[in-house]
Structure formats: structure tokens, C-alpha cells
Write a structure and sequence with these properties.
globular, 174 residues, 29% strand, VC0802-like, Alpha-Beta Plaits, 4 helices, 2 domains, 4-stranded mixed beta sheet
Length: 174
């Protein structure tokens, strides 16, 4: 298995459909203008890491346009999450990245929430970590309908961090 630590899209599919989802993804990224994306299965069934040469959030926007014209464009891809930063899955490093960059993505008036998804990592204790990160952000917390989401995807010993607006994750509608 090839290990890439740097990725800017995290894609989910159903288990055993990683190859089919990767093919859909490659074709989609080709349509968006990236002829050479790096698409790698992870050790986590149903999860694919992607490194595209394109801006990940622009790719999400282009895919939304494709899906608006053809809602059944995807058969295997279930969710696509853009990733802004990757790092080692270390609470101090993750917190440092969030503190250094959140103001670039979250305006003063925006509410926010933090979502933490951990896979094969018990070193990061959810509630304590979310409390540590959020105490340095002055914005209002809104767990039900936030303006922005700080999403932390921990994949073993690596981590992807995203600062997202409501419409920046693609989720397949059933």
C-alpha cells in the first residue's frame, strides 16, 4: 500500500467499492481539469485519500455543478470532503494549525462547531480536545446550524483539517 500523508480530498464509498469510486473520482477530476490526481486507498475500508493539483473547494463547486445537471452521476462515491491542511495526528500540532488559520476561514460574526472523526487513534480524547481547541476561538458555538464547521479527520497517525461552509461537503442523497 502506498502511503501519502498529504491529501486535499477525503472520499468515502461503501466497503469493497473503493476501486469503482476511485474510477469515478479520476474521471470527475479529469473533467475538472486535473489529468494527474493521486488517488490512494487507505487502510480504512471505504475511505480514499486524494491529492489533486486543483483547489479542493473549487473542485467541490465544480462537482456540485455536475451533480445539479446529473444527480445520478455517482454510483459509488458517497461523500467528498475537502481538506485544507494535513499534519501528524498530534493534539498540539492540530490545535496550532487551527489557531493559526481559523480567522482566514471564519469571520467574526460566524458561528461554528468542531467535528472530530477518529479512526484507529485513541490518543486524542474527543471532549477534552474539542474543549482545548474551541476555548481559543471567540466566535459563538452552534452545534445544530453553524455558519462554519472545523472538521478534523484523524486517520491513524495522520490528520486532515478542514474549515467548511455548509455547502462544501458533497454527500450522496439516497
Amino acid at each position: 500500500m502506498i502511503l501519502i500523508r498529504n491529501f486535499n480530498l477525503l472520499v468515502s464509498t461503501s466497503i469493497y467499492n473503493e476501486r469503482n469510486a476511485s474510477a469515478e473520482l479520476w474521471f470527475t477530476l479529469l473533467l475538472c481539469g486535473d489529468a494527474y490526481p493521486i488517488i490512494i486507498n487507505t487502510q480504512f475500508p471505504g475511505l480514499i485519500k486524494v491529492l489533486t493539483n486543483l483547489n479542493a473547494k473549487n473542485v467541490i463547486s465544480q462537482i456540485k455543478t455536475i451533480l445539479k445537471e446529473n444527480p445520478n452521476f455517482y454510483n459509488f462515491i458517497l461523500r467528498i470532503i475537502p481538506i485544507d491542511f494535513t499534519c501528524e495526528a498530534d493534539t498540539k500540532i492540530i490545535n496550532s494549525i487551527i489557531q493559526q488559520h481559523y480567522q482566514e476561514f471564519i469571520n467574526d460574526a460566524d458561528s461554528f462547531k468542531i467535528t472530530l472523526k477518529r479512526r484507529q487513534n485513541k490518543n486524542i480524547e474527543r471532549n477534552t480536545f474539542i474543549e482545548i481547541v474551541s476555548k481559543h476561538i471567540d466566535n459563538n458555538v452552534n452545534l445544530e446550524n453553524p455558519d462554519k464547521e472545523i472538521r478534523i479527520e484523524v486517520l491513524g497517525n495522520i490528520c486532515g483539517i478542514s474549515f467548511l461552509s455548509k455547502d462544501e461537503i458533497i454527500t450522496k442523497k439516497n
